[in-house]
């Protein structure tokens, strides 16, 4: 093959689209979403606790010579920017006695959940291009594989810090993640049994055509099979949600951090941007978890009566507008659903107290695991009973 | 002797845990809703909203020096406030009033009177101990500065904050 | 007279507040009460002065034994004489104790009497304690807290008297505050033998004044300020400088002459505000000459040497102490055998001991600079060096100063160490000094020698160091540190120790107590003493 032919053989268009989509998702959506999730966390927690929360960080126009700082209509929207500036400008301090390579590696690995976003269809299509970065047939497995790796960030951080609290946090985190990974995997099997594929785009398309898994109101969704399947699917959803809480180390399962016991857990010895990476990673994992819930149970990008990016489905009167408008509406719908679930995450965090570690383990191994297992048989029974 | 704390018997509903969780979520959402509706009383938004008008009579703000109605410095530099000051915020350098001064009979006044407002704890002991009713805690509370030197109130600043305080101190009454 | 003093002291039985005690004959009632630890408030009485009994504050109830018609004391049930009490209070400062006397210091009548006297004393006293320098150490304040009323019943106008009258160059009088105890008048008459003060005007206008043709300029005039029980007499130097309750008192010894008067240095935050005499019957009683007590201003002079300096040719112009001392050691080794040391009679024994060591190591000539003046027959000695005796004892005062001067002039001495003294005062000219190979000077202030010094070491003043001195009456007394030396200045003994170290290696002296111990081992006259055993009042030693 000549060089030219080699270049010609490379699917440039595909690479560019993939790169463009990656950049858009990561920098255009996820990172802002992460920082504003943090902001939302602070405002919502404040409201729940009868406080005000960060409400005044505007843009420092006084630095440019103006008399007053510009405060947006909702004061405090500049807070994430200020937070980011602070993290970047802080001294990057590495304590003595740490294992340097792993100490540096751990925060990088903490950003791993972002990779799993590649498998998630965040929109229908735009200009004929599917709004998913990697449209592969093993999407579900891929996501579990990648998120399973994120435990390394925590365990490495805990070990490399050469300090007892991070070490304990790391140990706790490992056992917790492995325990809940099981229930998480098992809980999703009924979904796959019903659908019979691991391609997430197809799963969403199926829900768009035949009703969301938890809202089977149109197409094939009106069948007895789907309505009976609601029982195992609801159980699946609850177990999956609890497992996501545990996987993302959110309260009530934030054992690895548990400030009252372990100072700050695995990231006790971290500061400045390295700490910020853990922080971002945690929220990115939350976003991935929420996105999965949306994809599996709430129809992904689909909104009833709204056409997709190829102009298919929906009310015919809406076809008057160009298709790309609906493509964008679909993307917005997806992230809107994600945002709703994120708020639910926050709401739960500021409501429930922390579990004891043995309770956590007991819940994972003695209840969720068994229920998820039984649920598979229940789903199988439903499918066997209803199929012709 | 070991005392075994009896565990309460839980009902199935309690054991299931989920109803309690929902109950908890309801409570927090209630607070959230009230806050969103603006029904919750929240902290005063300080620089914009101020408490100044409602400051009580006994409020202890920044210590200041006062002059009497004849424009005489009430302070005679007895240094009792310097002595009593718990954080040692006060530094006084006394001087003899020159013989040609209007108030030469008073004999003594502070040449320098400095209160380090970084140190001051607004306890009011200086006011309490002052035998001449010369130092008072006024209602200024926003004492700010960019440098440490700026936070030291010198004599001029203290009199500027304090102003004139009328009323008789018996000692300088010629009848007494 | 000799027979009387030789007779055994007759002890007298006295009952004080119901307790029978014995006192030597001739003890004043107020003294007896003081020895019995019964506080009698008083103003005019002073143990060193006569008792006019004019303040009336020391009223007590007195009694004498009841007598039978044949002049035998009636013995009570307890085996002690019964006492017949005088029905009115008596002053305790003008009476001696007598056999069988009864004294009540706390009876209701006594307390009532004191209250009455106090009220009278305060009738015309102005309420200017916030201004008065005496506040805080004022007997009037103290006793009015114990015996006074909270408010005055006096409705009439107070008598106005002159404030701020300059009685002399060093004493200012506030006549309003005076309670006319006449302590100052009696002091000037009886102790200073200069009857310059007296009372003028009549009745309620009585006030203290100097003789119309005289001023109070006696060299002991500030003692009147010390003994004034109120704030009437104030030191012009200390006036309105600092309130007494801020002052930290340090017990030390005066260094202005060979008497070694005991003094208290009052300082606050490293600044000396005043010097007052400290009672020591063996040395200065409770007096101190003005010239001595005011001679402390140089300590806080801005001209003080604060960092070691060396001549630019020798090295770094701002050397560290170690560099400077190494340079000094080098220069001394180079000039070995041709070194002379001019030490100071104002140095402590410890310093002189180390000077002697240094001289021995360098095989150098050493002497102190004599300093003489006129003796005043009271506390100022002719020898103005405070430690000549110590210098002689430790072999530093050798009388070789003339040889040293001659040696410098004829060139047989090429290196000179001047420790706290100006070599030009020994008879050397500045040209002589310029000729020398090396001059090492340690001093606190610049003088005529310091500009010629190759190595100039900043030292500590007398109030900045601990140590001992021996006065002209062979009493070893202790100096204590009242303030710390400014900047990088060091204790002289440290400088000498480090210099010896730089020349000769370790010597095992780590603190001033070590030096004293080493000195006491080598000096028989000091055997058994340590710096702390000297105590605040000093110890008489026998110098062979």
Describe the structure.
The complex is a heterotrimer of chains A (388), B (176) and C (544). Chain A has 388 residues and is mainly alpha-helical. Chain A contains 13 helices and 2 strands; from the N terminus they run H-H-H-H-H-E-E-H-H-H-H-H-H-H-H. In chain A, helix 4 (100-110) runs parallel beside helix 11 (272-297) and helix 11 packs across helix 12. The longest helix of chain A is centred in the first third of the chain and has 37 residues, at 12-48. Chain B has 176 residues and is of the alpha+beta class. Chain B folds into 2 domains: 11-42; 53-172, Alpha-Beta Plaits. Helices cover 24% and strands 14% of the residues of chain B. Chain B is built from 5 helices and 5 strands. In chain B, the strands form 2 sheets. A 3-stranded antiparallel β-sheet of chain B has the order 2-3-5. Chain B is elongated, with a radius of gyration of 28 Å. Chain C is an alpha+beta fold. Helices cover 24% and strands 19% of the residues of chain C. In chain C, strand 21 (467-470) and strand 22 (475-479) form a beta hairpin. In chain C, helix 3 packs across helix 4 (139-147) and helix 9 (349-362) crosses helix 14 (512-522). Chain C starts with a helix and ends with a strand.
Keywords for this entry:
heterotrimer; A: about 400 residues; mainly alpha; two-stranded antiparallel sheet; globular; C: about 550 residues; alpha+beta; six-stranded mixed β-sheet; 15 helices; 23 strands
Biggest beta-sheet profile of chain B: 3 strands, antiparallel
N→C terminal distance of chain B? 77 Å
Task: Describe the global form of chain B.
Answer: elongated
Largest sheet of chain A, in brief, is: 2 strands, antiparallel
* SS elements, strand count of chain B: 5
Q: In order across it, which strands form the biggest sheet of chain B? A: 2-3-5
- Total helical elements of chain B: 5
Oligomer: heterotrimer
| Main structural class of chain B | alpha+beta
Listing every helix as H and every strand as E from the N terminus to the C terminus, the arrangement of chain A reads HHHHHEEHHHHHHHH
Mean pLDDT value of chain A: 81
C-alpha termini separation of chain A: 54 Å
Q: Element order, helices and strands of chain B?
A: HHEHEEHEEH
- The stretches of 5 or more residues of chain A where confidence is low (pLDDT under 50) are none
- What fraction strand of chain B? 5-15%
What is the structural class of chain A?
Answer: mainly alpha
- Name given to the CATH architecture of the largest domain in chain B: 2-Layer Sandwich
| Beta-strand proportion of chain A | under 5%
- Report the average pLDDT across residues of chain B: 85
CATH class of the largest domain in chain B: Alpha Beta
